[in-house]
Amino acid sequence: MLFFYNKKMLGETLLITIQNSDDITFENKKNITMLKDKNGILVGLNIFNVENLKLSGEGNIDLTEEQKEILQKRLEKNGIKIDLEGNNDDYFVVGEVKTCEKHPDADKLSVTMVKVSDEEVLQIVCGASNVAAGQKVVVALVGAMMPSGLLIKKSKLRGVESNGMLCSRRELGLPYDEEIKGILVLDNSTELGIKFRDLNIK
Question: Which of 2, 76, 126, 176 is most buried, with most CB under 10 Å away?
Fold first, then answer.
């Protein structure tokens, strides 16, 4: 479950993503819009007028236990029962680029195989010029919401399947130098599979 808040862009509105869906219908209740898939399953919520939650930050945010309790009561008053647990940080992990090959149909894209755990290797198409085999990198897994509000989904780039994104400092919401392009490359000793938040990169 992902929580997104940007007061400058959306005002006092909290967006909640429960799961991905490409075929969405909308149902409006009092100051709440429910997003459902074609089977009627709740996949997201737009909650308006959330001043009483006293939210802070911009982009993906975490709610305190007190904020969750207030929100839970509001949802239940409108007949909406969901578990508000979940952390967007879990979708950002350290991966290792095992292979990197030129995209068959795009000069500026590379097709990488990235190991994100002992059991899982993902194919990810990357547009960064500095990507190379052997690197430790930050991987946004499918389901991650970027600080910009972009939701990472399974996709095809010029006909090649991609299951995640290799991230730059800018995409991760970190300070960055305009002159330095490409993905964030980590020290090779960085542990595979750990959460990006645990690196405490500033």
Answer: 126
